[in-house]
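Q: Given only this backbone (345 positions), what sequence would you predict?
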């Protein structure tokens, strides 16, 4: 049914417009009369539960940052069966992001190119919504992903991140430092160890007892990934997320003229699968066995999730697959994993 809807209707809509339309439905599912009804159909089996970051996750599969930028749909996403929702990326200063169009489907590749540019209502607005969410008796684990405000110079990035961390860490179940989006000028340069170290040290100090993770790009070299993983352990972080979107366009099936017309931005979806799992394995070699590693990138099926768990992931998350799989995506994955419960960590 969803495949038909996608082919006949959604694929013909502007991707960002389609996303906003879907968000209206998801937000409605977060209203209390509807939430328990939907959750009854999507609730993960008890054997799906994962203990990580001092928290209990109902499922190892959650929603990656970028889907719910303003913390408006977490309750509805919980109703759809996701084990955690990572909201954001949130910046200290509200910003509109890059000009539209800025989101493009590559349907033959089951992929998306985005250059959204951290469009969000800012940390103060996110904090107000998170306070309301935390009052709900039943909700997903809430991660908050923070990034650099566009108007802030890279030389002042530490203070900018710290401002967001101080406001949002007390309201988050875990906090993520995003230094890997390709859509904010200068941001990826913060992945260099000499600049990343003082940033993570400052955010670590500002985030208190809230678990802290860092998210890196798949475009780092293998040695670069090792360096980030080692630094995260050295500084006492609680985990890493492997990985963000890629700027690579290698091996795509979509017609070159369509890819070229889409232009710059981060590529997500199925083409990221191989590099993302390579990055995951590299990280796992460098960190302790109890260190939390969240795998992202190219995850669409229960087998994709299981492959990441087998490669050492603690948790997994996705975004682009929602577009191609529809509203029961999390239920499909949870049921697929439950079919082989002995293999789930």
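A: Predicted residues:
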């Amino acid at each position: 049914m969803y495949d038909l809807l996608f082919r006949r209707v959604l694929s013909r809509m502007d991707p960002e417009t389609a996303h906003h339309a879907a968000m209206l439905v998801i937000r409605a599912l977060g209203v209390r009369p509807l939430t328990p009804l939907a959750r009854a159909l999507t609730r993960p089996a008890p054997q799906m539960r994962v203990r990580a970051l001092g928290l209990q996750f109902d499922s190892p599969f959650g929603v990656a940052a970028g889907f719910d930028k303003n913390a408006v749909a977490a309750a509805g996403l919980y109703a759809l069966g996701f084990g955690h929702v990572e909201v954001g990326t949130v910046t200290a200063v509200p910003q509109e992001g890059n000009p539209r169009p800025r989101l493009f489907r590559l349907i033959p590749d089951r992929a998306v190119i985005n250059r959204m540019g951290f469009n969000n209502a800012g940390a103060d607005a996110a904090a107000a919504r998170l306070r309301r969410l935390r009052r709900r008796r039943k909700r997903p684990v809430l991660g908050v992903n923070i990034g650099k405000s566009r108007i802030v110079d890279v030389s002042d990035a530490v203070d900018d991140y710290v401002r967001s961390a101080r406001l949002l860490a007390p309201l988050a179940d875990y906090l993520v430092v995003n230094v890997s989006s390709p859509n904010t000028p200068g941001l990826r340069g913060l992945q260099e160890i000499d600049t990343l170290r003082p940033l993570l040290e400052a955010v670590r100090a500002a985030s208190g007892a809230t678990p802290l993770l860092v998210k890196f790009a798949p475009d780092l070299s293998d040695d670069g990934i090792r360096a980030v993983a080692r630094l995260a352990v050295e500084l006492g972080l609680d985990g890493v997320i492997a990985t963000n979107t890629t700027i690579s366009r290698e091996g795509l099936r979509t017609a070159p003229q369509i890819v070229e017309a889409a232009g710059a931005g981060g590529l997500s979806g199925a083409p990221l699968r191989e590099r993302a799992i390579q990055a995951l394995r590299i990280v796992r070699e460098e960190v302790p066995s109890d260190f939390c590693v969240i795998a992202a990138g190219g995850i669409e099926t229960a087998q994709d999730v299981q492959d990441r768990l087998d490669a050492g992931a603690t948790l997994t998350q996705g975004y682009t697959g929602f577009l191609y799989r529809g509203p029961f995506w999390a239920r499909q994955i949870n049921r697929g994993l439950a079919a082989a419960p002995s293999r789930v960590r």
